[in-house]
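This section describes the prediction task in plain terms. A model, or a person checking by hand, is given the sequence of a single protein chain and must write out its three-dimensional structure as a string of tokens. No templates, partner chains or ligands are provided. The sample shown here is typical of the held-out split.
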Amino acid sequence: MNARLAPLSVPALVVLHLLPGGIATLVFVLLAGPIETAGYPPLAAFLIAIGVGIVPFELGAVLLAGRQASPRGGILAAVPYRRPMHRREWLILAPGLLVVGVVGFGLLALLEPPTRDALFGWVPDWFVSPVALESVEDYSSSVWIVTLVAYLALNAMVGPVVEELYFRGYLLPRMSQFGRWAPLANVVLFSVYHFWSPWQLLSRLAGITPFAYAVWWKENVYLGIVVHVALNTISVATVIAIVMGKLS
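The expected answer:
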């Protein structure tokens, strides 16, 4: 049923899942101070981390695998989960998984503040809240416009598309040794990969596991892309609305 490829070793899977997150977090930490000195919120440093850490690494890995699979192969040559879905399946699964994801993220988000306070109370405020909603007025409107446009482009569109191609399109089909637990193992490692927000691990498991299983079941990475983009867009749009409300 599911596309079968030679599985990657467990150590390789762990490294490939976690390394881009480690790189992005390091870039974020190193640039947060200089970015604030330049007059931008810490969020801008996080966006740079996405642009120079996550996107090049993950796209590069998928493209390299595609070239190895076929000399003329493009980025999708390494992504076997491209089986077409009927329109009825799209109409049922995409909105259904979006609702399940929103509910999962929302319910488990209630556990984030106590978890963050109990286990990560030592983390600097700029790391916990890079958007800096409590100090929106400390930055100019022009700075926020530039930052929020980049936030929408990178965190609501480019980021989730690249992550789905990499995690569900490239890595998940190469985890066949886990059998039916492959999507869960994939999501656990994907959740840990977010080193910049470890207190959100449980909410990510609740929000992402359902559509990861759907991608695996239907062998269609585009389903994951649509749901992931929609989830991130809702989150990003909420932040943008709050920031613009404080600036008005």
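For orientation: The chain has a mean pLDDT of 94.
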